[in-house]
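Technical note accompanying the year-one report. For the benefit of new consortium partners, we illustrate the data format agreed upon in the data management plan: each record pairs a sequence with a structure-token string. No post-processing was applied to the example shown here.
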Amino acid sequence: MTGGTNPDKDGKSETGQSGKDHLTDNELDARSQALEDALSVRRRNKVQGNKENTSGSAGYAQALRLSSEFIAGILVGAAIGWVIDKLAGTSPWGFIVFFFLGFCAGVLNVMRSAGVVAEKNVVERDHAKGRVPGDDNR
């Protein structure tokens, strides 16, 4: 088999092609459609598998981010209050007041990150365009 075109006992040549030289357009279209269908099923399964695998880790990441923003607000507020108490000698009132201010700041940061409260620049932009919150006459 020097030329590579002599068929073996299964009717295939050394290159793996059958004795047929070409397929008809209908056969090629059918094979192409079958391939596209198989690929679309695999892609869909792969995407669904990725969503299932990453939804848990994405949820953990968001929870970690929101909790760290909340805790950071409280810690910063408490630290500022403690410093003010040490400098001004107003213990424990500075710590208490700034602890609660830090708590409020932490809650506000979490609400902004979660999309519950609009950020400052969005509100300013709406006021510049003449939109008023609660106004249905847009």
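Partners are asked to follow this layout when depositing records. Helices lie at 25-88, 93-114, 120-128.
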